[in-house]
Amino acid sequence: MKKLYYTSNILLLLILALLGSCKKSDSTETKEKVKPKKTIEHTKPKSVSYHFEKTKEWLKTNGSYSTKLRIAYAINRTDKANFIKLDSVVIPADFSGDIVYYLPFPLHVTALEEVSKVIIFSYPAQAFAAYENGELVYTGPTNMGRKKDPTPTGLFFTNWKAEKTTSTFNDEWDLKWNFNIENKLGVGFHEYALPGYPASHSCLRLQENDAKYLYKFADEWILKDKENVKVKGTPVIVFGSYNFDAPKPWLKLTKDPKVLDISETEIETQSKPFIQKILENQKVREAEPTATP
């Protein structure tokens, strides 16, 4: 009787151990399938408010501070060479925060959590943002297409890239860190002068450091042959319109520091029509052994 009792106990322990092992295995498998969320710690300024200052006067006391300069250039949608040409500029009262708090994009977008990479350009805000699984990883200013040659809006995918190429509009224009997004129209994002307003021939102009970042961040397409695309590159969403007849929208920041803010809901609304297509291409890319990891 005792022998039977001990035998049954041993069998029970073995069954429980097997069940526990299965649960642990299932749990491990589930964890492996779930993509870890990327969280970035950003330094938030104590307050965000803006005022006008004479450019040359401001530069006399702040021209040696690289962090301040980067934020000031971004707010005024310009670059070093063109900043000095502006009579007055919009300046924040507090420079203690990271650049993400001085540009309009939300830090997280739940609707983009399944999207491994996406770049979003806002025409009205003249700014761009790069997201990884819904988390804002990089942002900066842009100068897009002028009134005569507006930048097309909608969903695009990065195609080919070149550290230096020649413009299709003018063979005297050298475009550095160029990444094409519309091959037939010759539209891409690249480094070029940012005068502080939409001035391009439909391309998306960037500061040098921003152009270099997106050049490395985005993926090129994978061609099946000379005529056909096997896998598209990184999705790029361009949305909104710019009022060319009104004052620069960022000048309104002095009265309302949130006037240009783009809500998470707005990004979700703009990206929703394209999510399925983006995820379908993402699935194809992930299955492609030659694709960039």
TrEMBL record:
Protein's UniProt name: L,D-TPase catalytic domain-containing protein
GO cellular component: extracellular region
Keywords tagged on the record: Cell shape, Cell wall biogenesis/degradation, Peptidoglycan synthesis, Signal, Transferase
InterPro entries assigned: LD-transpeptidase, LD_TPept_cat_dom, Transpep_catalytic_dom
Assigned protein family: Belongs to the YkuD family.
Domain L,D-TPase catalytic: 117-239
Domain of life the protein comes from: Bacteria
Gene3D superfamilies in UniProt: L,D-transpeptidase catalytic domain-like
Signal peptide: 1-24
UniProt-annotated catalytic positions: H190, C203
Pathways per UniProt: Cell wall biogenesis; peptidoglycan biosynthesis
Matches recorded under PROSITE patterns: LD_TPASE, PROKAR_LIPOPROTEIN
GO molecular function, one term: peptidoglycan L,D-transpeptidase activity
Any GO BP annotation: cell wall organization
